[in-house]
């Protein structure tokens, strides 16, 4: 049924009011705290029982999703841990991840059943009263991770309709854009740049924002890391900030931004920052391993390994294996062999 003109006007007014309130929040609250406050505002405006949001990626193994940063509203602290156990069966979450940028919704019957839901997923929904949900996954070019947000309603509420989905999608896209701009201003980073190889945390190591390159670096060197907080080795040197030290075979810089700490991977030779995967492949090749041997260790095809090396050669300005080894040599210049290195 087509909406009446008065309903359309009401919808425009509602959306405009929420966007203005989100903008006002961005002017009052520091960038690290902004998204959590904005999601709380949205969850009240659209009406939901519970919600969660965060930055997510696939980690080094590219199989299991890793929630690098999260906040929960009306959900217990172990919600993420419990969900990860059944995430591979969650058809709704899989569809959200497959179609990035699109808003998706689900609705269950009185038994929390719905097409495609396994018994394990149904039991999970019943335990937390997740009868209806709306979710979106958005690309976040500034950190090169993905941002997600999901709202839930219980059995006693109506499903999310098309209007709710439209509101939710537009507001979350705007919220993410505002957060990105504020974070750029906070870090004094040009709009065309990103924070791929850095992150922001509080004094206890709880992650506020983190780039994909730093996530990959940590995952490779601390394989059991599951996001949320930085590894203990980082937090232990926060008291020395501002400082530059070595962790996991890389120079790491730590500085203050107000009450938060900024952690970044220092540039390699020639001012170019290699990703952890590029660095691992380059070291293997400089040590004399063939494309085929490296592909078995890294888990990539020989052709992909070759492509990585071509990119490394171009960026580092080297033309042979000897030159590559010299450029990479500063990694071990201090004479230490770190047991946490992946190779």
Automatic annotation (TrEMBL):
Under the heading Pfam families, the entry gives: GerE (PF00196)
Which residue numbers delimit the HTH luxR-type domain?
A: 267-332
Keyword entries, A-Z: DNA-binding, Transcription, Transcription regulation
The protein's matches in Gene3D superfamilies, at most eight in alphabetical order, are given as: Winged helix-like DNA-binding domain superfamily/Winged helix DNA-binding domain
Positions the record marks as coiled coil are: none
Quote the PROSITE patterns the UniProt record gives.
Answer: HTH_LUXR_2 (PS50043)
Extract the InterPro entries matched here. Sig_transdc_resp-reg_C-effctor (IPR016032), Tscrpt_reg_LuxR_C (IPR000792), WalR-like (IPR039420), WH-like_DNA-bd_sf (IPR036388)
Task: Cite a single GO BP annotation.
Answer: regulation of DNA-templated transcription
Give any GO molecular function from the UniProt entry.
DNA binding
Q: What is this protein called?
A: LuxR family transcriptional regulator
Organism of provenance: Burkholderia arboris
